[in-house]
């Protein structure tokens, strides 16, 4: 199951890096969706996706694959 979760996280990070940058007119929409997605898959650890909200310009957070990092950090033993 973890490989599927990792694939979803990679796909979402690629979306955030490309098309997600166009969502700037809707403040924090990408962060809300990403946080919800990560929370559904990884529980409380997914809340750390909210760190992307620190970048209010929406420019830097697309280059940090935070969902993928959360998935790798939560890889089962």
Q: What does this 3D model show about the protein?
A:
The protein has 77 residues and is mainly α. Helices cover 49% and strands 0% of the residues. The chain has helices at 2-17, 29-42, 66-73. Helix 1 (2-17) packs antiparallel against helix 2 and helix 1 (2-17) runs antiparallel to helix 3 (66-73).
What is this structure's SSE topology?
Layout: H1 2-17, H2 29-42, H3 66-73
Order of helices and strands: HHH
Kindly name the structural category: mainly alpha
Terminal-residue CA separation: 13 Å
* Count of discrete alpha- or pi-helical segments spanning 4 or more residues: 3
Could you say which overall geometry the principal axes of the C-alpha atoms support? globular
Low-confidence stretches: none
Largest sheet: none
Strand content: under 5%
User: What number is the mean pLDDT?
Assistant: 88
The number of strands is 0
């Amino acid at each position: 199951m973890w490989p599927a979760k990792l694939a979803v996280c990679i796909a979402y990070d690629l979306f955030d890096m490309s098309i997600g940058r166009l969502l700037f007119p809707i403040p924090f929409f990408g962060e809300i969706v990403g946080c919800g997605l990560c929370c559904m898959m990884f529980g409380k650890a997914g809340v750390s996706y909210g760190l992307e909200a620190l970048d209010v310009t929406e420019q830097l957070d697309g280059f940090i694959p935070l969902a993928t990092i959360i998935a790798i950090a939560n890889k089962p033993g």
